Structure formats: structure tokens, C-alpha cells
Amino acid sequence: MAEVRNKQVVLRDYVVGFPKESDMNTVEGRITLKVPEGSNDVLLKNLYLSCDPYMRILMSKIDHEGIGSYTPGSPLTGLGVSKVKESGHPDYKKGDLVWGMTKWEEFSLVPATQIHFKIEHTDVPLSYYTGILGMPGMTAYAGFFEVGSPKKGENVFISAASGAVGQLVGQFAKLTGSYVVDLLKNKLGFDGAFNYKEESDLDATLKRYFPEGIDIYFENVGGKTLDAVLLNMRFHGRIPVCGMISQYNLTQPEGVTNLANLIFKQIRMEGFTVVKLYHLYSKFLEFVLPHIREGKVVYVEDIVEGLENGPAALVGLYTGRNVGKQVVVVARD
């Protein structure tokens, strides 16, 4: 079978500090649209690619505790929604829709183990499987319910609430009867919101919104935000930690000075990675799909068309340029 062109986004070199569009190149590769004889790999046509904060970590030369790093000159890898073109694995057949790890290119040949789940529900937008029905949705669900252990009427504070995960945590919290405030002016039915860029004293601001303190802080930012929150946590509060986007581009991470509050207030602060919780995926779908169909949970997406616009979309995550889940459309079918 003849080779076809395969547009790709590749990393030019390892990144120090804030990533720039120029750290990535859009190039034209070539691929044969066939699975090698005897291989269990799956050939994918990529439809939607997910821009996620953790991708910045992979742009560094340092291997962060086994997470790994990208290889300069090779395509970026990340989560995406794809259609199976050809399969050497019995679990997948031509035409199946799947989501999992793929490459930033038009077509990808990947090991079947990189596919997380087959897409069974297509009455919702396919792009949702990069967000609310994919890794971010599972992160919000597992982090809030499994790690946060919410109780009705508790006070919940969410950082990075305009992003893929935070906007869902807030809505899930409202469904449990919580009082919810987010860090950005992104209401979505929340009880309050403020823009941290306009607040000179975050500690005072939190005391204004949470005079009785915070029961659950869903941590996505780290640094000065975490430091101020620790002063305002209630006894037996919980802090699920899934990200610290304010630290990813710093050569010297910021210190946190108020950690003694973990002791004095008997706070549980727990980091988690969603891949360890994917066994809850079917339970998660049972919970969230009816809410989506009934309009009780809404999802904001920031969609850009074309793989060549992927670098700008990804870099925009780190300056807060996106509103909602950042998605790159490679093809719609």
C-alpha cells in the first residue's frame, strides 16, 4: 500500500521556562495506512486532540518520577478521540470510535494498550471524550467524590475553574448541595466567583467568601494560592491534589509556608493520578451521562480547527487564554 502524507506536530527541543509556539514545528510526515502483518497494533485516524496541562511536564528533559518526557524531533503524544482504520487486535475493528493516548498527527499506529476505552455513546459530541467524558471528567469525578469525600452543605473552593476539570468539580459539588466558589469569573451556577488577577490579598478574599472556612479545596494551581487556602481551611478539611499548573513553567518552584495548618486543623491533603482510577469509568458514565442529557451538567469547550493551530492552543493553557476545555480538531470524521 502506498504511503500517504501525515501532518504532525513535533517538539523541536526540550523546553525551559514557559513554552512557546516556536518550540514546536508542524511538519509533513509519511505513513502507510496498514497494520504490519502479525502485529497487535491499531491504526487510528485522529479526530480530536486534547490539550492538557501535564503535557508541559513532558516537554522537559527531566523524567519526573517515571512520567517520562517527549523526544525532540518526534510528534507530541496526548489524549485524543480517534477512529479505527485497521486493527491487528481482536478487541477493535475498522470503524470503531475510541479514546486514549495517541500522537499529534493525522494518522497514528499505536499499541492497543494505549487505547483506554471504546466509545459506546455517540448521542453526545465526540469531542466530549477529550473532556467531560474522558480523562478530565474522570479526574473531576474521582478527585471530588473518592478523594474529597463530600458531605451535603460543605464549602467547596475550586482553583482553575475555567479549565477542563475545575468547571466539572464545581458542578458536581452543586449536585451534592455544596456551597461553591471558583477562582475565576466562570459562574456555571456556582455561588460565587472572583478573578485572582484583581485580588491583591488572596487570604482576605477567601475570608470574605468563606467566613466559616473551606471544607474541600480542589487543587489545580499550587504556589501562592495553596498557601492562602491553607490559612482558610476548616478542621478535617480535604485537599484533593490533581495539578499545580502555576509551577510547571518555573525553574525554581515556589515555596509553601503554611503547611503547619495540615497538622493544627487535621487536614487531609492527597495527591492522585486518574489512571489509577479508570476502573471507575463505567460507574462514572452512569453518573454523568444522564446529567448531560438532561442539561443539569454543562460543559464549555474552546475548540480550534486544524492540527497546525495546535501549538498555539497548547501554549495558551499556561497563560489562561482558553475558556473551557481546549480541544484541537484534526478531522471531524
Automatic annotation (TrEMBL):
The lineage of its organism: Eukaryota, Viridiplantae, Streptophyta, Embryophyta, Tracheophyta. Coiled coil: none annotated. Keywords: Oxidoreductase. Residues 164-288 form the Alcohol dehydrogenase-like C-terminal domain. One of its GO terms (molecular function) is 2-alkenal reductase [NAD(P)H] activity. Gene3D superfamilies: Medium-chain alcohol dehydrogenases, catalytic domain (3.90.180.10), NAD(P)-binding Rossmann-like Domain (3.40.50.720). InterPro entries: ADH-like_C, ADH_N_2, GroES-like_sf, MDR_fam, NAD(P)-bd_dom_sf. It comes from Vigna mungo. This is Enoyl reductase (ER) domain-containing protein. Residues 7-115 form the Oxidoreductase N-terminal domain.
